[in-house]
Amino acid sequence: MPVGIFRVSLLVLTAIVNHPLIFPKENGTVPEEPQDIIQKMKEREETLRLERLRLEQEIAEWEATQEALEKAAKVVEQHEEEKVRWDMWTALSMVIFLLIELWRQDFQEGIWQDTGGEEDDMAVLGKAFKGVAFPDKAILASFYEKRILGTTGDMARMREMVEGFADDLLEALRSVCNRDADMEVEDCMGVGSMYENWRVRKPFVCDLIVPFAPPEPYCFRSQIWCSGDSFPPDEQGYGTIKVCRADEAATGCICDKTKLGEDMLCLLHSQANTTRPSSEMEDLLCFKNTQYLDADQVMKWFQIAVTKAWNRISHKYEFDLSFSLLDSPGALKIKFRSGKSIAFNLTPVVQYENSDVYFISHFPRSSLAVDLPSSTHWFLTFAVYERRFIQLVSKTLPANACHVSCLQILSFVHGKQCSLTGPSGLTNYHMKTVLLHLLQARPSEDWAPEKLEACLQDMLKFLEKCLHEKKLYHFFIGNRKVPAELGFPIIFQRAEPLNLFRPFVLQRDVYRKTVDTFHEMLRNMTTLINEYTVHIPLAQTNGIHKES
To answer: Which compartments is it annotated to reside in (predicted)?
Structure first.
């Protein structure tokens, strides 16, 4: 009985507990009203709409991004194609440029100042010679014999006197200089027309160059325009000279270019071997705050040294010595008590490496020349090699060859014309350059003495051609046909040819004046020569013509 009652009670209790209306389960759902169900459906619909809009926006952004990437890829692809095409055009242009440059060099080498046998090539200015009564060889020979040949003895005596005095003066200069601090002066050398025997116009002036070197332990290191570094066109033919220690590397030590600090020491340079301060570098005639040799400082030092040297030996001579020209620092003049005087130029130079090319501190200039870029730029002179070349070629020419006679006559006539019409941009050096080119290009037999008239006309025609083209190349620079016997530095032979008439391109007034003077000289040549020639009887002239 008790057990039955317990079972019934347990059943009733279980039914009550599991009844959904009394104790609903946690996951159980209570029937909702229709309005609530509709409201929830609307909310769900709104949520889905917003989600759809968000997804559409993301898809649109992704598509825009993909489109932008595709456009960028197309731009890059087009740029790469254009770059490839541009690189191809650049490469093609470079190839064409190199071919043109090689052709130009071969052309210049093949027709170096082409003076070949074609008369049409020589007679560029045929108009200038039309109607010109050119003096015949009889008048030219008489003119040379009576007017020019007699000056040869005077030149020889003057050279001997000037050289002896210059040697004595330089020996005194060495004695007054401080061997430990001043520049070391070497023996002088004669260059130019007086030592090549073609000077004709008075007063005769000897040109002497004096090489000098720095005191120990210093040395000169030079840099020229054709050594590989880029030089502007107006600095072609120039170079710079750096004063360095003899034990210093050509590139210099890094301690000179960087600040090592107070607690660091260069192992290559001790305190006793440091670079001289700025003031002492100026004592070495360098430009202020640099190591580059200053031409103005050199000339000041040289003038002071020459003055001291003359004061030491002046008692030995019965004449006075003075500087004659302000614009030519090396111009000296000897004045005798009789009133006569002798002028000569004594110019300091620096040797280029182990050659006979020299950096010259002052170069006589004409109206054609431009000023030096700066006082640290030095002009190079090849005067020693020019003299040697003339001597070398003269050994292969016929006896009494007329090459020097042509240069003397042309120089004389041009000088007389300039005295009438004013200075010209054409100089004696230009005329000598013309002769050097013709000596190299023409056969030896063309310079026989009986061909004086033809050779003089060839020089005039060649000069006329150069004036017409505004091109007269320096004989040595860029000339790969220089005789090996001269020992000429190869670096200058491989350089670009240097146009001596380049200033004519920039100075049109000077060019026009030069051309007018040249044409006037051609028209007046016979008159100028006859004026300074002893009269030749007509019968004698005709006889000479018949013999020829």
So the answer is: Cell membrane; Nucleus outer membrane
Residues 6+ apart with CB under 8 A from 36: none
Which pair of structure tokens corresponds to residue 125? Answer: 């200015």
Residue whose C-alpha is closest to residue 299's, from 307, 288, 289: 307
Tokens representing residue 378 in the block: 């030095």
Q: What global pTM score does this model have?
A: 0.70
Count CB atoms within 10 A of the CB of residue 317.
Answer: 14
Ordered by where they begin, the domains of the chain are 126-247+282-531 (3.30.460.90)
Per-residue pLDDT tens over the stretch 487-512: 999 999 999 999 999 989 888 999 99
User: Residue 212 forms beta bridges with which residues?
Assistant: 185
Is residue 329 within 8 A of residue 303, CB to CB? The reply is yes
Burial of 130 (0-12, 13-18, 19+ CB in 10 A): exposed
Read off the pLDDT of residues 350-375 as tens digits, 9 standing for 90 and up.
999 999 999 997 765 444 445 566 88
How large is the average pLDDT for residues 148-155? 76
Tell me the C-alpha distance between 433 and 440, whole Å.
11
